[in-house]
Specification:
This protein is α+β, with helices and mostly antiparallel strands. The chain folds into 2 domains: 61 residues, no CATH class; 56 residues, N-terminal domain of TfIIb (Single Sheet). The longest helix is centred in the middle third of the chain and has 11 residues. The radius of gyration is 15 Å and the shape is elongated. The chain starts with a strand and ends with a strand. The chain binds zinc ion. Zinc ion (ZN) binds next to loops. Zinc ion binds next to loops.
Length: 128
């Protein structure tokens, strides 16, 4: 699961780790190198295990997680979900190199067709 989040990710990460939820930060270096890039790439991405999500969501709610509103990347993600891109895959976006890639659920009739992928960061879709 990817949270898009500005540089306040550290306290959040500390909090989650104190609850024994493993976290990984992405794009941290980019943001540190050039803070102005942060907005362009949607901030720092905090990754947790899918299985930790319910637990993490509870924690985020309990600390009044403020990153929910007006988040363009999150909006993209929801657009993707609405179009059926719901399966997280280990791929990188050919446009922005984001790892937040989703594909549609496979149907039996779609097995031998190219799969279509969606980037939750820039909204790019492509088939492979
Ligand atoms: Zn992209």
């Amino acid at each position: 699961m990817t949270f898009t989040y500005p540089s306040e990710a550290y306290p959040l990460m500390t909090k989650l780790e104190s609850e024994e939820i493993e976290c990984m930060l992405f794009d941290e270096l980019t943001v540190l190198t050039d803070p102005f890039i942060s907005n362009a790439i949607g901030g720092v991405k905090l990754k947790i295990r899918e299985t930790d999500l319910p637990h993490a969501t509870k924690i985020l709610k309990s600390i009044n997680f403020a990153g929910e509103k007006e988040n363009p990347a999150k909006k993209k993600l929801q657009e993707g979900f609405a179009k059926g891109y719901v399966v997280r895959v280990e791929k990188y976006c050919p446009k922005c190199e984001s790892a937040g890639i989703y594909r549609k659920r496979l149907s039996l009739s779609g097995l031998f067709k190219p799969k279509s992928y969606f980037c939750s960061d820039c909204g790019y879709t492509w088939e492979e």
